[in-house]
Specification:
membrane; DUF4956; 196 residues; three-stranded antiparallel beta sheet; single chain; alpha+beta; 63% helix; 7 helices; 2 domains; 3 strands; DUF4956 domain-containing protein
Length: 196
């Protein structure tokens, strides 16, 4: 392959990468979850990962794949603030698209098909109609009942009663016995609970 055709191939792969990333981050994530800062960060991370992986793919595929994996792991270890699971999934998707598009050795049609399949899968799995009525929230409780901490069913009932919703799952994020505070991340069904 000549240098001009290699640059053309790389440019076309970058175009596919940008289109797929814009659809993933702005068409799906931002419209559904609304975090502008995270959307921009994920898009920029994709562009940077593409550039590094495109350069490394000319060296050796396994090395490029290794650095792609390093980028993914760095995301989880080096982030300075807590981000939710859905945000991590979209970040991972952004990196995955960069890896799919940047690493040579795969024909363009395969890159387009794989990218389209990834986007279609995300569209379906994160579609609001699929999990209609289900919500997630983090709450701070002003009292800590030690008996509730040891009985998850009773804790779920108590949270449901206090919030007036049907709590479907919860996780205790933090306990502060000095100030009598508990931070709980929970999922609930947004329909009103039957109290009968």
């Amino acid at each position: 392959m000549t240098a001009v055709s290699e640059l053309g191939d790389l440019g076309f792969r970058f175009l596919i990468n940008i289109i797929a990333t814009v659809i993933l981050i702005y068409g799906l994530y931002y419209r559904r979850h609304g975090d502008r800062v995270l959307a921009t960060t994920a898009a920029m991370f994709n562009i940077f990962a593409f550039a590094v992986l495109a350069k490394l793919s000319s060296v050796e595929f396994s090395l490029a794949a290794g650095f792609g994996l390093f980028a993914i792991l760095a995301l989880f270890n080096l982030r300075s603030e807590q981000i939710g699971r859905i945000e991590i999934a979209y970040f991972f998707g952004s990196i995955a698209i960069a890896v799919i598009c940047s690493v040579g050795g795969t024909d363009i049609l395969t890159v387009v098909v794989i990218s389209a399949c990834v986007l279609l899968g995300v569209y379906i799995v994160d579609h609001p109609a699929l999990v209609r009525g289900s919500r997630a929230v983090t709450v701070t409780l002003d009292q800590i009942d030690p008996q509730l901490l040891s009985d998850s069913d009773e804790m779920r009932r108590t949270l449901s009663d206090r919030l007036g919703v049907n709590v479907t799952g919860f996780e205790i994020v933090s306990l502060n016995f000095v100030n009598e505070l508990a931070i709980v991340s929970l999922t609930y069904n947004s329909k009103q609970r039957d109290v009968s």
